[in-house]
Write a structure and sequence with these properties.
By secondary structure, the chain is an alpha/beta fold. Helices cover about 60% and strands about 10% of the residues. It contains 25 helices and 14 strands. An eight-stranded mixed beta sheet has the order 7-14-13-8-12-9-11-10, sandwiched between helices. The longest helix is centred in the middle third of the chain and has 81 residues. The N terminus is likely disordered.
Length: about 775
């Protein structure tokens, strides 16, 4: 997960208090974390199955098989045959076999078994264990035992059909193998008697004999009426007469349709010819002669030339306004006017009759003649069609009566056949009843079981193994879902939305824990392992730790000075990662913190250890002097961590005004690490830190030291962390894995943010890695 800067808000959504497994490592983490509960649940289930299988009573099963034969030998129900029920062979087989199974599963069969064997025998009760009852109490107890025995027989009897066969398989389970055999044998005997009685129909032979005679008489009467009606009509068959009329109707219909088509075509042709006659004239120009002499026009032209010559002569003698000149001018104008009105046509047109008009007229006359003949034919055809329809109506009227008689005849004939067949079946049924012949054959007699069928050890163990495996896996995930404590860095980053600066393995604290226990014993303090029970739990815990170390491929180092020194060096190298996270991988725009406060939600989460190791890492990597201040006024921890500290002044003296300056103490083995202990702090000064006084104390040491690390008490034990957070440049929150819930960490974060504290990140302390190293490398 990427963070823009340590302490800045995260912009992704919160997924919840726990992260759902997404990879195989997450799944293995859940399984190995709850491996004790998983193994305990698995072992408990397997032990319960094993013990239950051994203690369960032995059940024996007797088996038998019956063959259901279809046909007359199985009994005949003549009433069903007379009802006319038609079924296929497969459905008939299924129906009959299912009917026999219903009889076998009926309560009556179980009651007959209990009546024959006795309720005490069926329930396998000891005769001497019965209570001595009399009167009404004895009757009620007997009825109750009988009802219990009947229900026991019905529940213990299993009846089923074998696939693709007519065989019914029966089985009965009981603790007594002989009782199982006796129950099946009694049940089969009772079923055979019931089968014969169920398939026998008393009085069916007389009934069907009477019905057969009545139907035969009615059939003969109907046949006589039908013959008389056909003879009166003079036809042998209605179907043949209908076929003849249909043929005639088809021929006439074809003629009518053809005549209608021709009539329509003729009418359309008449209309078309008339329209053509309207388009063509009766006469037309037969001949046109060109360049013919026009004598009238030529004479008028000569007269005009003559008048024009005369006008020229008059004008040569007289003036234009004289009477002679005007008269000759008038004559010339009239001549010109006449010439203009008279066209100079040299063409002569000869007009005669139009041959197309004459041809269309003759065609119209011929087509009207055809149209008249078609109209006459239509009249004749319509008359014939009406006569044919009358014949059809008369035949239909007679057909209704004939068909009713035919239908009645067919029904009576079918009934006569059915009653005749049922009569024969009833006769056979009477014979089967008299001779007690049944269609049930015993293919396999009830067997005497030798080996028990329940409990099945292998099947129970397999089912128990599957149940234990699925249940144990489900239990691990349920426990993980119900566990709201922090155990992985993802729980902090996704839920609390704070970056994880470092996750410290729990193995780094084993030497310190052993050392702390030894120190408490040396001081005479009561040990948590006092008592036999506590010693046993401690031994089991050490055995479990050894097993986990073996699974992880690690070996426990002996508690020697050399091993403690090696573990201390390994721890310091591990804490160097927090230096890289805080100062080497930060953005250039962000201001590196110089005063860092370290706190936790509750006491005992390892905040003092983290503060000390952080100070050591800063002293080793920054090459500047580092001051470690112990602010645990009520419960100081520096004296236990650094043995060189004695009774000297410290932070409480500066805050109380008993000293203006306290010289820090040199930490052993670290030249650039200085320590400022608590000093002489009374118990009532645990919550007496004033932020202004604390700011003044820090101001005295800022110029001298490059980094100042403040070890604060728990947030929910004192208000000291919130007060110091107001003057510190950054706060590191320590969370112990698998101890503190996610909701508590969120509340701690909110409390620090209320005072505008700059939370640099979280150190996940005492984290346990449950997946073995050899498996972790494979996934």
């Amino acid at each position: 997960m990427n963070f823009t800067s340590i302490g800045s808000p995260i912009t992704h959504s919160v997924l919840g208090s726990k992260i759902a497994p997404k990879t195989m490592r997450d799944v293995y983490h859940v399984l190995f974390r709850h491996q004790a509960n998983v193994l305990l649940f698995f072992g408990s289930v397997m032990l319960a199955v094993l013990v239950g299988s051994f203690l369960a009573p032995r059940i024996y099963k007797s088996e038998a098989e019956l063959l259901i034969r279809l046909g007359r030998s199985s009994g005949v129900d003549a009433t069903v045959a007379a009802a006319g029920q038609v079924v296929n062979v497969q459905q008939n087989w299924e129906t009959e076999v299912n009917s026999e199974m219903i009889i076998l599963q009926s309560r009556e069969m179980a009651e007959r078994v209990v009546t024959t064997l006795g309720a005490e025998r069926v329930l396998e009760k000891d005769f001497w264990a019965r209570k001595v009852l009399t009167g009404e109490a004895l009757l009620q107890e007997t009825m109750r035992e009988r009802d219990t025995a009947v229900r026991a027989v019905m529940q213990a009897t299993k009846i089923e059909t074998l696939p693709r066969s007519s065989i019914i398989a029966l089985s009965y389970e009981s603790q007594d193998p002989r009782l199982a055999q006796q129950v099946l044998r009694t049940l089969i005997d009772a079923y055979q008697d019931k089968h014969v009685a169920a398939h026998w129909n008393p009085g069916s032979y007389d009934f069907f004999l009477q019905q057969t005679e009545e139907v035969r008489t009615a059939l003969l009467r109907t046949e006589t009426q039908l013959l008389e009606l056909k003879n009166r009509l003079g036809i042998s068959s209605v179907e043949d007469q209908q076929r003849t009329l249909r043929d005639q109707y088809g021929y006439l219909r074809q003629q009518v349709e053809g005549n209608d088509s021709s009539l329509a075509a003729s009418k359309a042709k008449v209309e078309a010819v008339r329209q053509q006659l309207n388009r063509f004239p009766e006469t037309m120009t037969r001949e046109v002669q060109r360049n013919v002499a026009n004598l009238a026009w030529d004479y008028m032209r000569q007269d005009l030339f003559r008048l024009q010559l005369k006008q020229q002569e008059v004008l040569s003698i007289y003036k234009p306004d004289t009477a002679q000149a005007k008269e000759i001018a008038r004559q010339v104008a009239e001549a010109e006017k006449m010439i203009k009105e008279q066209a100079n046509s040299r063409t002569q047109t000869i007009v005669g009759s139009n041959p197309i008009f004459m041809e269309l007229t003759s065609s119209l006359v011929a087509e009207e003649t055809v149209h008249s003949s078609l109209l006459a034919k239509k009249t004749v055809l319509d008359r014939q069609m009406e006569q044919l329809m009358d014949d059809f109506r008369k035949l239909n009227e007679f057909e209704y009566a004939i068909r009713n008689l035919d239908r009645e005849k067919d029904v009576l004939a079918g009934n006569y056949t059915k009653y005749k067949k049922s009569l024969e079946e009833a006769r056979i049924d009477e014979a089967l009843k008299i001779q007690r012949i049944s269609g049930i054959s015993i293919v396999q007699e009830p067997s005497l079981p030798v080996r028990h069928v329940k409990p099945r050890m292998l099947r129970n163990l397999a089912a128990g193994f599957a149940l234990a495996l699925v249940g144990s896996l489900a239990l691990a995930f349920v426990l993980e879902y119900l566990d709201h404590t922090v155990n992985r860095p993802e729980d902090i980053e996704y839920s609390v939305m704070l970056p994880v600066l470092l996750d410290v393995p729990a193995r780094f604290f084993r030497p310190e824990e052993r050392k702390g226990r030894a120190a408490r014993q040396d001081k005479g303090e009561p040990s948590a392992e006092a008592g036999i029970g506590a010693k046993a739990r401690s031994a089991a815990s050490r055995l479990g730790d050894a097993f986990k170390e073996q699974m992880n491929g690690e070996q426990s180092s002996p508690d020697t000075p050399e091993s403690r020194a090696f573990s201390r060096a390994q721890t310091e190298r591990y804490y160097d990662n927090i230096w890289d996270r805080l100062f080497l991988k930060r953005s250039e725009l962000s201001r590196p913190p110089r005063t860092i406060a370290v706190t936790a939600s509750y006491d005992g989460e390892g905040s003092s250890t983290v503060a000390a190791n952080l100070a050591i890492s800063l002293a080793k990597n920054s090459r500047e002097k580092v001051l470690l201040i112990d602010a645990n006024l009520g419960n100081p921890c520096m004296r236990d961590m650094f043995c060189s500290l004695g009774d000297c002044r410290g932070l409480s003296d500066l805050l109380a005004g008993r000293a203006d300056y306290v010289e820090p103490v040199q930490a052993p083995d670290y030249s650039r690490l200085m320590l400022l202990p608590v000093g002489d702090a009374p118990g009532d000064e645990a919550d007496g830190i004033d932020p202004k006084l604390m700011e003044a104390v820090l101001a005295k040491y800022r110029d001298e030291f490059g980094y100042i690390v403040i070890d604060c008490p728990a947030v929910w034990r004192s208000n000291v962390p919130t007060r110091i957070a107001t003057v510190a440049e950054g706060v590191i929150l320590v969370v112990e894995a698998e101890r503190v819930r996610v909701q508590i960490v969120e509340r701690t974060k909110e409390r620090l943010e209320e005072v505008n504290a700059r939370i640099l990140g979280v150190v996940l302390n005492k984290r346990r890695f449950y997946i073995p190293s050899w498996l972790y490398r494979q996934i």
